[in-house]
């Protein structure tokens, strides 16, 4: 029997259930995958709370790595015993499990240099960092980026990738400990968003100019500060709502903030095209394999500790990446 974490109603971490389920033989185009490690991502809390609605009951989690146990009819590019990883959106829900069936075309083969633990800690976060750094804006060396939650899983990867691109990084954090972690990964300037005026500090750091781009995964609490930190015709990239949904706003505010641009991208739209996905995967895996980008796994949980893991995540007690070890 396979252990799977599910939820039958939306709500707090306590709605998560642990169930025993049968995993049958893979059908056409599928494989049966034994998980070795499962990624814990803030997006998981959005599904659990109903911010991202899905039919209930539902599995949870959309990132994991493991070993192929069986392949179904028509699967020719993967073999039993190969190590793979995956991430997605609703098409990969159910990662919080010891074993599962999954479409073979969603899987990414792992190179020898990347362990299953590292893969589970970096596939979603790393590909998110990849499209943010490489696809969403034509960064030029010397430009300045404001990065909220700089000590988080995506944040630490973005810090390192940004330095490879020759960018200046201003990172926001909540504590001295998180500031040290962000600096160690390439963050040039720290702003403590819990006790400093973010936009004022950004203007001071940039001699009044503001930044070209803001990556904002916090949402409600930082939205206006992010807009106020942009230079004329700068870009605000809203990539999460850890503090809550951004309230409705009049688009005319963008004109008042220097003809600012705003976008709310999703990873799924940047890996939907197989060629674009392969390009991002190759670049990410290349950086990690060569040691140019380090993946920090700072929290490990057992699957049965999913409730506590979600509590820790939402209380902002975590840094870097978190995984479940099967």
Tell me the layout of helices and strands.
Layout: E1 2-7, E2 16-21, E3 30-40, H1 42-49, E4 58-59, E5 63-71, E6 83-87, E7 99-103, E8 108-109, H2 116-134, E9 144-147, H3 153-164, E10 168-173, H4 176-184, E11 189-192, H5 198-205, E12 211-216, H6 223-229, E13 230-238, H7 252-256, E14 261-263, H8 274-289, E15 297-301, H9 306-314, E16 321-325
Parallel strand pairs: 9-10, 9-12, 10-11, 12-13, 13-14, 15-16
Antiparallel strand pairs: 1-2, 1-4, 3-5, 3-7, 3-16, 5-6, 6-8
Helix pairs in contact: 2-3, 2-8, 5-6
Concise overview:
Residues 11-324 form the Enoyl reductase (ER) domain. With 326 residues, the protein is α/β, with parallel strands linked by helices.
Binned strand content: 25-35%
Report helical residue fraction.
Answer: 25-40%
Q: How does the major sheet shape up?
A: 7 strands, mixed
Tally of separate helices: 9
- CATH top level of the largest domain is Alpha Beta
Mean pLDDT: 97
CATH superfamily grouping of the largest domain: Medium-chain alcohol dehydrogenases, catalytic domain
The Rg value, from CA coordinates, equals 20 Å
Distance between the amino and carboxyl termini: 14 Å
Task: Give the oligomeric state of the chains in this entry, treating copies of one chain as homo and distinct chains as hetero.
Answer: single chain
Listing every helix as H and every strand as E from the N terminus to the C terminus, the arrangement reads: EEEHEEEEEHEHEHEHEHEHEHEHE
């Amino acid at each position: 029997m396979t252990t799977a974490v599910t939820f039958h109603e939306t709500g707090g971490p306590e709605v998560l259930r642990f169930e025993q389920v049968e995993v049958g033989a893979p059908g056409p185009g599928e494989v049966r995958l034994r998980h070795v490690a499962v990624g814990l991502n803030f997006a998981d809390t959005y599904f659990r709370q109903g911010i991202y609605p899905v039919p209930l009951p539902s599995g949870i989690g959309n990132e994991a790595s493991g070993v192929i146990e069986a392949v179904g009819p028509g699967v020719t590019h993967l073999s039993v015993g190969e190590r793979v990883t995956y991430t997605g959106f609703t098409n990969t829900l159910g990662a919080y499990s010891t074993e599962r069936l999954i479409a073979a075309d969603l899987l990414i083969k792992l190179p020898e240099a990347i362990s299953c633990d590292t893969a589970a800690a970096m596939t979603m976060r790393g590909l998110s960092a990849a499209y943010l750094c490489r696809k969403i804006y034509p960064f030029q060396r010397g430009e300045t980026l404001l990065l909220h939650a700089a000590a988080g899983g995506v944040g630490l990867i973005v810090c390192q990738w940004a330095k490879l691109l020759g960018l200046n990084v201003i990172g926001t954090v909540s504590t001295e400990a998180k500031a040290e972690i962000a600096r160690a990964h390439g963050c040039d300037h720290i702003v403590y968003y819990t006790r400093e005026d973010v936009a004022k500090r950004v203007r001071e750091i940039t001699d009044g100019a503001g930044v070209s781009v803001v990556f904002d995964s916090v949402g409600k609490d930082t939205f206006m500060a992010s807009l106020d930190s942009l230079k004329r015709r700068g870009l605000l990239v809203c990539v999460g709502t850890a503090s809550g949904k951004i309230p409705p706003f009049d688009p005319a505010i963008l004109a008042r903030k220097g003809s600012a641009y705003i976008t709310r991208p999703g990873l799924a739209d940047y890996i939907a095209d197989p060629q674009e996905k392969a390009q991002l995967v190759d670049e990410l895996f290349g950086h990690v394999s060569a040691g140019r980008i380090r993946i920090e796994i700072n929290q490990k949980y057992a699957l049965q500790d999913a409730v506590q893991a979600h509590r820790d995540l939402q209380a902002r007690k975590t840094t870097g990446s978190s995984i479940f070890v099967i």
